[in-house]
Amino acid sequence: MTSAPRDREIAVVAFAQTDHRRTSEELSEVEMLMPVLHEVLDRTGLKTADIDFTCSGSSDYLAGRAFSFTLALDGVGAWPPISESHVEMDGAWALYEAWTKLLTGDADTALVYAYGKSSPGSVRDVLTRQLDPYYMAPLWPDSVALAALQAQALIDAGDTDEPVLAAVASRNREAATANAHAQLRGPVPQGDYLVQPLRTGDCPPIGDGAAAVILAAGDRARDLCARPARIRGIDHRIEAHGLGVRDLTDSPSTRLAAERAGVFERPVDTAELHAPFTAQEIVLRKALRLGDGVVVNPSGGALAANPIMAAGLIRIGEAAARIHHGRSDRALAHATSGPCLQQNLVAVLEGELR
Amino acid sequence: MSAVLKAPLVVEFPFTRSLGPVQSAFLTGLRERVILGVKTRDGRTLVPPVEYDPVTAEEIRDLVHVGLTGTVTTWAWNHRPRRGQPLDTPFAWVLVRLDGADTALLHALDAPGPDAVHTGMRVRVRWAGERTGAITDIACFEPYDGEVSTVTVHAGEIDDPVTGIVAAARLDYTYSPGRAQTAYIHALSGRRTVGERCPSCRKVYVPPRGACPTCGVATSEQVEVGPRGTVTTFCIVNIKAKNLDIEVPYVYAHIALDGADLALHGRIGGIPYDEVRMGLRVEPVWTEGSPYPDHYRPTGEPDADYDTYKELL
Questions:
Q1: Residues A93 and A236 in one domain
Q2: Domain of life of the organism in this record (chain B) (predicted)?
């Protein structure tokens, strides 16, 4: 059962994010994160002591700092001891954990945050360490190379070509002109091949950033937000880790998660897709059956700002913010993890009809 | 605003991993120049082979030989090989479905350029000269237009199977400590210890990390503390640490510098190890060229009253 029971409605009531930048070297992780935590609390008027559950997503491998999430907790104010958890995943999965916690009735409010500093290391190499350690990681296949294998498979299948991919890149970055937080805003040259067939324009910017949302259950949500973004369903699914076992032109895990989250019950008007590489948007649009009437990535998506570990949570936050501001009634948010869309999370958010 | 401090940071570790029976047979096979797949109950042959069916999660153990030749199912041209990758000249990443297999293996293809590579092209294994039982025993693939290869060795009869791999991992970073710690380190270079005060609870943190962990707010007011302080608690170290030139036994202590609300730690010297006690008053001893105190030594003052430091334990 992955649809929220009617008697326990859970909503995203606030969202905040940093400006995403190539480097934040003048700030430690907690210094980068803390303003976002304060901003999201201020939006609701809540204090740390009012939060029943805190959950975060980050990875020590990005910045090469052991137990960095415990230092990040300094920014929360964890004394007296708080109920807290952490996932070594994108913050979208931290939100999933918080959602389940609220479903149990043990908590009415949750703070979910995520942050990532890609600038201290070489993120293409860092991401090789999440691969199968026996057959893949010893070859050091970097994240762009694996995405390029997927892009070529799509080209061979006739699902896309380079001009279509370039159009995906330019449409996302055009949309990002309206997003003050984005790292790449407006036209960016497609550039040379990074790993053919992907050009630099097909790849996400490398950058640092953080994001936070607050979840609230039932009447609490209505108290804290004029138009809460209610989570109608949320689910995540994973595929085999062997790339050669998968059909890289499709995303059955996304489709299944979407089904379980209730995406196909009624059309959505907005979709925030976590597609760091242009070709992945092609795969996701197909798996999610998004028609021309759906506004895709009004924020500019991960091609405009991709703070790793936070970029998926930002998709949920952006979709929720559209509902908060009355620009969407039913929005889909998607987050991904692993190479070539290996693991996918899909959420459906709704606002009360006006 | 001080300039951003930066330092190289290398994180390096040789991961020692044990192998399951299927992985062991596959990697032992590579050492002996044969390639094994594993059959699922529904008749598919998986290469590289895994211990459990990725669809049904069923345990699978039925090993079969597959060809040393195969077909490219997708590829990507790598213009600039990175450290650790199979070839150091430009190459194609490929997924190769070996003859007799139903799934594809990730590896490198040595080809003159992207124009020489296409999906559907035929390739064969090029073995590494020295093989240890690892995926890198396949040096790479190379273009091939000959017959399907046949296998002559029976992998099940190979002695001395590989039971584990050592996977070296190295990542290079440029560490920067952030605003608060940068200020702390800059002050230390002038032999001053500067903490930061929480605007809410007024506690002074040394070293500062930029946030008050109790209140969750930024600290910014800089407060010079010390140089003298009080030993709040300590331990006696009896085992010599690698690469550390200090005679054991010695004392390592928590020291609350005067004016600080958090104890830092340091070595106590200038006093026999068995005379160190809680409440001992100490001061830093700097050595020429060192960015931080070498150790702390007694000041000769009377011991501090327990009540003055009991909150800092």
A1: no
A2: Bacteria
